[in-house]
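Q: What would this complex look like in 3D?
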Amino acid sequence: MQDRHHVVVVGGGFGGLQLVNGLAGAPVRITLIDRRNHHLFQPLLYQVATTLIATSEIAWPIRNLYRDRPEVTTLLGEVTGVDAGARTVTLKGGQAIGYDTLVLATGATHAYFGHDEWEPVAPGLKTLEDATTIRRRVLLAFEQAELEEDPVIRQALLTFTVIGAGPTGVELAGIIAEMAHRTLPSEFRRIDTRQARVILVEAGPRILAAFSEDLAEYARRELERLGVEVRTGTPVTACTAQGVTIGETFVASRTLVWAAGVQASPAARWLGIAEDRAGRAILGADLKAPGHDDIFVIGDTASVTYDGGKPVPGIAPAAKQQGAYVAKVIRARLSGAKQPGDFRYRHQGSLATIGRRAAIIDFGRFKMKGALAWWIWGIAHIYFLIGTRSRFAVAWSWFWTYLSGQHSARLITQKETVREKD
Amino acid sequence: MQDRHHVVVVGGGFGGLQLVNGLAGAPVRITLIDRRNHHLFQPLLYQVATTLIATSEIAWPIRNLYRDRPEVTTLLGEVTGVDAGARTVTLKGGQAIGYDTLVLATGATHAYFGHDEWEPVAPGLKTLEDATTIRRRVLLAFEQAELEEDPVIRQALLTFTVIGAGPTGVELAGIIAEMAHRTLPSEFRRIDTRQARVILVEAGPRILAAFSEDLAEYARRELERLGVEVRTGTPVTACTAQGVTIGETFVASRTLVWAAGVQASPAARWLGIAEDRAGRAILGADLKAPGHDDIFVIGDTASVTYDGGKPVPGIAPAAKQQGAYVAKVIRARLSGAKQPGDFRYRHQGSLATIGRRAAIIDFGRFKMKGALAWWIWGIAHIYFLIGTRSRFAVAWSWFWTYLSGQHSARLITQKETVREKD
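A: Here is my prediction, written as structure tokens for the whole assembly.
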């Protein structure tokens, strides 16, 4: 085993796993390195943040996924650099791990456009911890409002602002509004949670820029029907613990959620290759790091175009297609077969949900909205989960919510038990 | 509603909830205050710590439980004192809440017998956060061992010590040993997790002092069959990040779990009444705080005896019986009916599991052990969970583990992503 071609994969997201899956049976040994012990199904992370499902339903221990593949070694570690000359990656702590082929699939995190000081007051949503942080803050705001005697502070506590109106922002705002207006009213005695305001702010001219205009317009009406105030065309200019400034206007809002920008992981910098504005490594259609024949970059940390210049979007299907492509390239190299042609991204469509009953689907020619779209969205997402256990658990949580109107995972956990009062 | 007799209940554990349940339909209004937003089913907390079930399966938002009882107000807040003269409880932040009758059901936490400095290295198990901390440390130890090149450090990482051999200690040690010896071996490539040592330390002469000697002996043999080293009769004299000292002997062990002592909440001190060694308020058989006709103390923070001097144990059924009793007393007072006689604890029995297939049940005259006892234990615990959702979710997690041998919730979450290396 030790003399086999050694593929090192950094990152156990959608791209990294698809690559490892694509190399099943190939004459390689694989080391898969991730900072976390689990693969995360990010498309449903907003449902953890909004108490609909539990953390363990959308996360799987990576090493457990490859327990039946003895050629795959999983390591929990943080990569801090690549030495392309020595063909090693360096782990935090100093350990170096040699490779024959290296695949960087290290993903992206949220970006605050030069305002990193906003992060503590406006957390983004990329990890399980982010999701439990948002869950805690949303639930705590209602709890503190129930205790609060000053009506002005109470209204600030009952004002929730989601910044950025892509699918994640729309999904978060929709569920928070449903919670406030439908799930929680019977549980509070001193406040009326239906008085809560949920504001969705988008700097661009409209919400859901990746979707067609009529679908985005439908989503906007559905959000408003759920009680969300949608504000487009004005950027957020300040975020503090007291509230958010939209353009020139300050809104007292104690709970902010950031769903606006992304920043790639530093893979491009490790390699010293060109990066785009978001820090993504700029690649050709072979997904190779320019100048490095044995290093590939895939997923959210790669900047690739298709169809004559459109950027490949940072979504799970794109990362998976890239992982599958690179697996084919590696297989062909090792077997001496003809190399596959250039990577060509096939856009399968965009999906987003609004609350618990409506969704929009944009497959280009085929478009769909409403309750049936929600069911298609739900079935597709359960299908893409890994393993019977999670499929069953998520289906049960949804079914339960559907039946009872109650959410499964309304827990306030971790440190910040009570936030500072004024 | 506002002119009704006002019962303030501090603590939403088994005792507090049973009291509120017992007052259904009574001419009272109730304010239920807890530091946490959820009621926790502590008897299964060790299963969260050992990755068998998810946090949300054994925790319920308290206010959700009383959504259909408009006379019950739930507040998330930390009580810091009682002013019995003014008949108010004080919340952190200064708010005072008046009462006509006060019930303190504030529970207990772990105690380190004057060695609070051991807490960071040997966490106890009382809250959901404690459970995820222990889960994280156990899983991280295996991960770090897989990365570690020094065999001495590797063995220290693969040595787990549980301190205290009551039911919780026995349950934790059993599952950790099963994980190491049965669940994990196929997932690691550089270490053999079957080399892991699990040590269960008990200062007293035998494990499971609350059980009969033959059942405790059976449990000991079962633990040893699972690979647990049981050490009785010697106290732990030091805990550090490097290991544990048992009597005079140092054992290099990077993961310690504390399951030894309890310390009551400061209810007795708030009232200025006598307390026992563990800080519990010493009460007569009327469960009233001596000298306070309108204050009751129940559950783990109360020190009560039965059957001529035996202490009522700090377990869920005892707290529930006390809650039900005090509800009856309050009802009788308000209706002018005859007061119920003294509180009399009925001991229903003790249960403990060893690993995933065996349990012991001690009902006094009736004793039982083995696989059938495990099934009775499991069915009883599912029965006592609140609501269809949780019963179903826990049953599914167990069924899944039974079927596949895999655990449901093997997640490393929160801060300490990588512990300090030497």
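A: To summarize the key features: DSSP finds eleven helices and 26 strands in chain B. Chain B touches chain A through 60 residues (CB under 8 Å).
Q: Very helpful, thank you.
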